[in-house]
TrEMBL record:
Protein known as: Uncharacterized protein
Cited InterPro entries: DUF5677
Native organism: Caulobacter flavus
Pfam families recorded: DUF5677
Highest classification ranks of the organism: Bacteria, Pseudomonadati, Pseudomonadota, Alphaproteobacteria, Caulobacterales
Length: 355
């Protein structure tokens, strides 16, 4: 365990503890204080300390929050200055994908509704989800949270794997995918619960009808994809990746997953500390590590949009596809160039200051 460095400003948080020790000492020592009396002293002291501390903290909160928000605003301004060209390209890609996908949805929705086109319905919903996820990634990156953005990419990868499978297997799989949430919502409702609540009855009846129509595997996680896996009625995401031929991103997916769960992360493994020369515990913003999340966000959103619009291919949508691929293809070179150039400039400036 790293040793805490000596620092006169470190607050040991033991003032009240020492006061209580003094009171107990005056009473003849801890061993001479009855248990009930000790409990009373501790409870009264904690209540008094908490009341005063609460009042003091809330009194100072407005000033503290103003200072904190000025600091955050200053960081975000500097972060944008560093990564502006890459952030701008990312937002241009997002707007293009949103407008293209939105118009595609509006134009073809009446026909899809008339034909009960499950594939269209599933893909438009998945495209909207992808736009939302990438919006979150953009906000996280602008706020200085590259690791958080990479964690959100995990969801984008899952969405794209599902889109690949639905595009390959069509209407039947799309219907199962759309029906699956209704099964999960109602499968665990008991008859007694359904009898006592009309809404629960509707949920249970809908779930039972879907299971009777599409099979018992629909009750399981990822059960909508069980028809693709033969005897495997509970396909995990690893299996879905294999079916979609998307195993090349498995390493990245595993790495992104570690940023969601409580696994121990060595500080040097964090994107936000990728340029740090010291071992620190990162608790807030950093303007490091944006290249990976930016590249993944751009490529993932463009891929997602292409899956959608190529459901109804024509030359215009082909031209849009080529354009989006061209735009996303510039991201890694642009972002990595910014990263290298600005880091060199910062180190050069730091060396000048040290002399």
């Amino acid at each position: 365990m790293p040793k805490q460095k000596d620092d006169d400003d470190v607050w040991p948080m033991d003032e009240w503890h020492r006061d209580i020790q003094s009171v107990l000492h005056e009473a003849g020592g801890l061993e001479n204080v009855p248990a009930e009396e000790l409990d009373r002293i501790l409870e009264a002291s904690a209540k008094s300390a908490s009341k005063g501390l609460d009042k003091t903290l809330m009194k100072g909160a407005p000033k503290m929050l103003r200072r904190r928000r000025r600091t955050n605003a200053g960081f975000e301004k500097r972060n944008l200055r560093r990564w502006k060209a890459a952030f701008d390209l990312m937002e241009v890609i997002w707007v293009c994908c949103e407008e293209i996908g939105g118009n595609f949805n509006l134009h073809f929705r009446p026909q899809a509704f008339e034909e009960q086109d499950y594939e269209f319905e599933a893909l438009t919903h998945l495209h909207a989800r992808a736009l939302l996820v990438v919006s979150e990634m953009i906000c996280l990156m602008k706020g200085g949270f590259a690791d958080g953005a990479l964690a959100r990419w995990r969801t984008l990868h899952e969405i794209n794997v599902i889109m690949v499978l639905i595009r390959e297997h069509g209407e039947d799989l799309a219907e199962r995918y759309l029906a699956h949430p209704h099964v999960l919502a109602g499968k665990d409702i008991t008859e007694d619960e359904a009898a006592a609540d009309e809404e629960l009855r509707e949920l249970k009846d809908r779930a039972d009808h879907i299971v009777a129509t599409l099979g018992d595997a629909m009750k399981n996680d990822n059960g909508w994809a069980a028809s693709l896996t033969g005897n495997q009625t509970k396909p995990n995401f690893r299996k879905l990746e294999e079916l979609a031929n998307r195993t090349e991103d498995r390493g990245l997916y595993k790495d992104a997953s570690t940023r969601i769960h409580g696994n121990h992360k060595i500080p040097c493994e964090l994107l936000g500390l990728s340029e740090s020369r010291q071992t620190v515990l990162l608790v807030a913003q950093s303007n490091s590590g944006m290249t990976g999340p930016l590249t993944l966000a751009a490529a993932g959103l463009v891929e997602n949009t292409l899956h959608l619009i190529n459901l109804r291919p024509n030359f215009d949508r082909y031209a849009f596809s080529v354009t989006l691929i061209r735009m996303s293809g510039r991201m890694h070179k642009l972002a990595s160039g910014i990263e290298e150039r600005t880091l060199k400039a910062a180190l050069k400036k730091r060396r000048r200051r040290s002399h």
